[in-house]
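Supplementary Methods. Inverse-folding protocol.

Structures were first reduced to a discrete structure-token string of length 146. This string, shown here, constituted the complete conditioning input.
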């Protein structure tokens, strides 16, 4: 009888640890990103899987939110709008947190998608709702806080 209790206890512990690992892997982390007086709560995409998925399949995004793509090193990171349902502004940022390029009004696509390439190497990219860079006068050379 004791062997069965021990077995079930071990099983319960393994199951509990599995749930904890699953929850930890699915918790989204956010970073406050500011350009002057304009700030967004940016969801962090720092893994290949998270960067690949990006904002795909979401119906919308509040104006005060965005997605910050974090890369290990500066390079030319291309983006596309596959299965994204709303237009975005894409802001590329270097290691010093300075804006090095901006693409405004990237339009959604489903099948054949245009690749959106920066003109300068970057370490980060911030996606926000289309029109916000112009509305808040965000420009190349501006510094961001995050």
């Amino acid at each position: 009888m004791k062997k069965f209790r021990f077995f079930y206890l071990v099983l319960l512990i393994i199951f509990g640890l599995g749930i904890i690992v699953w929850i930890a892997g699915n918790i989204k982390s956010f970073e406050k990103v500011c350009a002057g007086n304009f700030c967004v709560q940016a969801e962090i995409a720092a893994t290949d899987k998270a960067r690949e998925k990006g904002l795909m399949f979401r119906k919308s995004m509040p104006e005060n939110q965005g997605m910050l793509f974090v890369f290990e090193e500066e390079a030319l990171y291309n983006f596309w709008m596959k299965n994204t349902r709303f237009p975005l502004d894409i802001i590329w940022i270097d290691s010093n947190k300075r804006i090095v390029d901006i693409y405004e009004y990237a339009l959604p696509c489903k099948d054949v998608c245009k690749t959106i390439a920066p003109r300068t190497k970057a370490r980060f990219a911030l996606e926000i709702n289309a029109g916000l860079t112009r509305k808040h006068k965000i420009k190349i050379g501006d510094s961001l806080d995050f």
